[in-house]
Amino acid sequence: MPKGKFNYRLVIFLIAIIFGVGFSMPTFLQSEKGAKIALGLDLQGGLHMLLGVQTEEAIKSKVKSIASSIKFFAQSGDIIIDDFRIDEEVLSLTLLDKDEEKKLDEMLKTISGLQVSKESLHYTLSLNDKEKELIREYAITQAVETIRNRLDQFGLAEPNVAKQGNDKILVELPGIKTAEDEQRARELIAKAAHLQLMAVDEKRKDRVNTMSPTEAAQYGDVILADARSEQVRHILKEIPVLDGSMLSDAKVSFSEMQQPVINFTLNSEGAKIFGDFTANNIGNRLAIVLDNKVYSDPVIRERIGGGSGQISGGFSVKEAHDVAIALRSGALLAPVTLLEKRSIGPSLGADSIQASLMALVSGFLLVSVFMLFYYRIAGIVANIALIVNLFLLISIMALFGATLTLPGMAGIVLTIGMAVDANVIINERIRELLRQGMPMAQAIDRGYENAMSAILDSNITSIITSVLLYVYGTGPIKGFAISTAIGISVSMLTAILGTHGIYQFFMPRIEKSKNLSLWFGLKRSY
Amino acid sequence: MEFFPHHKIYDFMKMSRFFIATTLSLALLSVILFFTQGLSYGIDFSGGTIVQLKYEQKAPIDQIREDLAKDKMFSGALITEFGSPEEVQIRFASTSGNVSEDVGDKVRAMLRETGKFDVRKVDIVGPKVGGELREKGIMAAILSMLGIMIYVAFRFEWTFAVASIITLLHDVALTIGVLILFNVEMSLDVLAAILTLIGYSINDTIIIYDRIREELKSTKDMNLMHIINTSVSKTLSRTILTVMTVFFVVFTLYIFGGEIIHGFSFTLLLGLIIGSYSSIFISAPFLKVLGFSVEDYKNKIALKEKNRIEKNKMRSMYEKGTV
Lengths: 526, 323
Fold this sequence. Notes:
The structure holds 2 protein chains of 2 kinds.
Chain A: H1 8-29, E1 38-39, H2 41-44, E2 46-53, H3 55-76, E3 81-87, E4 90-95, H4 101-109, E5 114-119, E6 122-127, H5 129-154, E7 160-164, E8 168-174, H6 179-190, E9 195-199, H7 213-218, E10 221-226, E11 233-237, E12 242-243, E13 247-254, E14 260-266, H8 268-280, E15 286-290, E16 293-296, E17 308-311, H9 317-328, E18 336-344, H10 346-375, H11 377-399, E19 403-404, H12 406-435, H13 440-472, H14 476-505, H15 507-512, H16 516-520
Parallel strand pairs in A: 1-19, 10-16
Antiparallel strand pairs in A: 2-8, 2-18, 3-4, 4-6, 5-6, 7-8, 9-12, 9-15, 10-11, 13-14, 14-17, 15-16
Helix pairs in contact in A: 1-11, 1-14, 3-5, 5-9, 10-11, 10-12, 11-12, 11-14, 12-13, 12-14, 13-14
Chain B: H1 12-36, H2 43-46, E1 48-55, H3 61-68, E2 78-82, E3 84-92, H4 103-110, E4 117-125, H5 127-155, H6 158-181, H7 188-218, H8 224-256, H9 262-283, H10 285-289, H11 294-320
Antiparallel strand pairs in B: 1-3, 1-4, 2-3
Helix pairs in contact in B: 1-6, 5-6, 5-7, 6-7, 6-9, 7-8, 7-9, 8-9
């Protein structure tokens, strides 16, 4: 019996087999160690959301905080400002004393991106376009950071938060199992967590129930609802004393009544403002406002140093916990809206996995049985290449950390059909040469040579479409593009190089054999 | 095993006259259908909301309709069975931009009386995103055709590139025509299937073109009709065999892949058949229609070869130091 002939093609193919089997094991065995293919949201269930960021709100709130600091500056420097107003993105104020003009002008110069226009002592302030653009950009990156932070603290496995395009945020939460968890996650994401400490307008508080919001605005006031009841309303100075950007920590604890409350601590700047304000406003009330709802409005009895406060207001323990997370990770500078949402229950994912595995196995069986009957040994060789192709495809996807989606599964199934294409082309070429009476050994080598350009050209065009599908596709479609692109590339290694190596290994035997039917399924010898 | 008589040369050129005329007019008809009746776009492209439920028993569709009619949000909602009698799909055009509210919770609350069920899927696509997805999809289709055209022009000849693009346009138009006829909804998956079929159909075409290129180089025959007939006949077994293997797997995907992937696998099946048909009867014969000249091609190759030899000669002379 002639011995097999080792050749470089076979060696590469054997390495590919070891590589393929080795690196696909973690995926098959679902072991803890090693790179595995992660299942996409559509297969394991989970939540996919595309959020839009309302950046113009960030600009408005920036204008508001500029207003707060001007007010604080004026108060601490005994500068008297009259008619201080915010109209959307524009601030206006009038200075009473001309002597203080220089002081104010210098202070305004320190605020970056501020456009100042003056008519004698009447100031109109707004942000320039460059500053607005910066704020917009920052609002998005900050929202991405904040949402990521919140979800990390919420304790979900591998949340994915990423900026998409110029003004969108992609949030993917795999493995959310219950509707309640999903609800909490969504609320946590959407919560502005905008904490404001605002002074109660003591002069007009009795008229709160009769005053319209427009009238209140004329006095520089704003009317907000109580957190516990929509009917209870509060009239507050629109420009807040300070806001959540000066917060350094927030924790849940329990009041004497065993109610969950949130204790917050301010940073040093916030603590100073808070201390000064409370010292100057003893006997007045200070409202604690979270997301435009008033949680409490205690009377200030003395100067409060140290910069800590408390939000109480009938939270459940879970709510308090989530609010504290939101406060700690910072306020969203701009509110987010839902542009796209896809939520898939785990049972649907399991069904999809089962269905596509079924398709994969039966597709594979059909193709390999067909190849076996049509080409005999050449069919077996092609089937070996096909199996190795699948192992390699899974390994490479695992190593690249690709996620497997339902269309990705379809891509793998399709790869089975496409990968044997190369072998069909080669075998048909070999058969053609055999019919012309060429000896088998020579026909094999020539067959590979002749088939090469067709296989290369056709595979390259397929890869061109896969790449474009990846670039322009979204979500699961990208998965389809990845699996077909990898599958086709790998097939060039397995179906061309690998099978050729196998034939070369058996060459001594092939040269002796004249049985064209056994080797290539030809009907009779020529 | 052999399916095909291997020495027979079929007269595809003769047949193709009839086929080109028929299917190109069908493709044209599809285009007209596309602009008059139009595709029905799924929520991926038109925006909207889909909620999918699975009941433990047969879904009480009438009662679901009745209960949901109480809320304005669901007015005009399409409530249908989905895949099996236990499963229901609720579809409507409006979308909610509020992150913390969920239409799934709402449905759960409103249908509490109708029996035990599970909300399996909630898809909300805002109108803005839908428009973007559609733009991107069209972009991908156009770019992949351009990419293929450039590649084919580079590897073959411009006539081949033009013929292949006409074939692809024909394939896409026909497929879309059938989708309209069968009322298949255009979704992201179906779009992916169409893009795959572009890649697949060009595969078949290129195998045939490759053979034509080979024949052009090897034969002394100057008759394009003969060359095309020979090339298509010689690749016929490969074309049919590959289509069969791919057809097997896509068919299993269609049967076992579940309702979600139905549109995708249906489109692929369709594309497979149309794609290999057009490769045989349109792509190669169209070279003749476009006036491809065997003589010019051979002259060009001869010239190239001459230039190459000349260049080599110059180089060797240069290396020897005679120039």
